[in-house]
Design the sequence.
């Protein structure tokens, strides 16, 4: 499964809040909510986050192997 845990860590490290993402960069609150719920987002949004936060994809998401 895809985890957005690195995203939240990157936000803290870059001192960027979800408020700033929504109000300054136009990221929808629905996208932030989907990430909180570990639901999928588009690759275009991942690209947007990488540009905004000046980071790599690994700083936004990671693959976590399902325990089956």
Sequence:
């Amino acid at each position: 499964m895809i985890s957005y845990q690195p995203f939240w860590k990157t936000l803290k490290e870059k001192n960027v809040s979800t408020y700033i993402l929504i109000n300054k960069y136009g990221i929808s609150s629905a996208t932030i909510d989907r990430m909180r719920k570990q639901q999928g987002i588009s690759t275009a949004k991942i690209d947007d986050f990488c540009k905004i936060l000046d980071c790599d994809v690994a700083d936004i998401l990671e693959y976590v192997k399902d325990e089956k």
Observations:
- The domain at 2-63 is CATH 1.10.260 (434 Repressor (Amino-terminal Domain)).
- DSSP finds four helices and two strands in the chain.
